[in-house]
Amino acid sequence: MLEQCGVSGKLHLVDGYLGIIVIVAVVALLAVGGLFLFFRPKGKGAPTLEAPPRPQAPAGEQPQAPDLGEQQGAATTTLPPPPAEELVKAPEIEVPPPSAGRMVRLRSRLARSQSALGKGLLELLSRDRLDDEVWDEIEETLITADVGVAPTRAIVEDLRTKVKVLGTRTPTEVRGMLREELLAQIAPELDRTIKTRPTGERPAVVLVVGVNGTGKTTTTGKLARALVGDGNKVVLGAADTFRAAAADQLQTWGDRVGAAVVRGPEGGDPASVAFDAVARGIDDKVDTVIVDTAGRLHTKTGLMDELGKVKRVIEKKAVVDEVLLVLDATTGQNGMRQAQVFAEVVNITGIALTKLDGTAKGGIVISVQRELGVPVKLVGLGEGPDDLAPFDPEVFVDALLGD
Ligand SMILES: Nc1nc2c(ncn2[C@@H]2O[C@H](COP(=O)(O)OP(=O)(O)OP(=O)(O)O)[C@@H](O)[C@H]2O)c(=O)[nH]1
Q: Does residue 362 form part of some domain?
């Protein structure tokens, strides 16, 4: 019995050891498995909920507005829903499209200039015999399209020489010759960048000037949209204190894209509003301050002096980087006289040529640059909020000549 007890006692002891060995083995296996899972190399396509790191823009550069194609191709990641508060207070601020490539999109708006100027010249130059009568017609076509007398003479002279050299002309050669000539007259080498980037802590300041009804306020609003679309922060100055509606109009433009609008009392001092707008821009650390001024007749000396004062007062606070003269393309040679007087009072650095849509007088681009020695930087091609485009000479000439 005792012996039996001894044997069974030994058996229990062996069972006990076996049990411990099995437990140790299982624990060891689990530990090795855990270590393997922890240190296993991550595969290429390992799914992750982390957003990829944002590329850092080099110092001083603004991050580019994302390109739509890039957005469409991006992998979808489910983000946690925004807090309920944000959902309720969703801002009604529009995100305008970037400015690049706008002229290509709007080129069909040059249809009237295209048939009057481009196609007219192509047809005349393609004739078998180019006698004096045809050259007179070519001259007339250019003058009617507002190219201006001096540039017209230069173009006709150049074309006569080129035709002599060419002799018989194929349609492709005629087109090439005309394209080259028009482009040369538009001077594609001119610097057309609008200075809207801040310098250190100081925002760029753009002053918008011109006679009544040329489209100053509209152009100021459209430019602000384009800049916001390109990723900039903008403040608008409503220095047109004569017309309350102008400040309201600008306020609407600003509100749509989330740009602050600085305005003053009706009939107040426009220079003081301009000064306050620039001060606000500096405080808010924005990229650009655009100051809209009242429309003024170039013949009214008092008003022109006031414009000079607006610029001088801004200069107490910051540099005026850009003075844009807004010209209505449909006003022709009268617009040219206005431009000259404005240029004497404030140093114009660029021209915004509005209402180029629906006019046959596209040649004004050539004459206004020639007369003022200042490049056309922006063109207005419609009444829509995004119908303002950076001027691109090649796209312009190609639109005139057709494809
Ligand atoms: N078709 C067309 N119309 C334009 C363009 N730019 C401006 N306009 C229109 O021109 C009209 C006058 O524009 P405003 O911006 O009020 O002109 P303004 O120069 O500020 O006028 P004042 O404040 O009176 O001096 C408006 O009806 C605009 O919609 C353009 O590029 N094309």
A: no
Summarised one tens digit per residue, pLDDT across range 158-201 is 999 998 888 878 889 999 999 999 999 999 999 999 999 999 98
Q: How far is Cα 149 from Cα 130, in angstroms, rounded to an integer?
A: 21
Range of the domain at 341: 204-348
- Report how many domains make up the chain: 1
What's the CATH number where 216 sits? 3.40.50.300
For position 141, what pLDDT does the model report?
Answer: 95
pLDDT digits 0-9 by tens, 351-375:
999 999 989 899 999 999 998 899 9
Which residue has the CA at smallest separation from atom 31 of ligand 1?
380
Helix axes 332-345, 301-314, angle to 10 degrees: 50
- Compute the distance from residue 262 Cα to the ligand 1 centre, in Å: 21
Q: Which residues line ligand 1 (CB under 6 A)?
A: 210, 212-218, 240, 243, 246, 295, 354-355, 357, 380-383, 387
DSSP alpha helix (H) spans, 147-293:
149-166, 171-186, 216-229, 244-257, 270-283
Residues in the chain, pLDDT under 70: 1-91, 298
Would residue 296 count as lying in a domain? yes
| Rounded Cα–Cα distance for residues 379 and 219 (Å) | 9
Domain membership flag for residue 125:
no
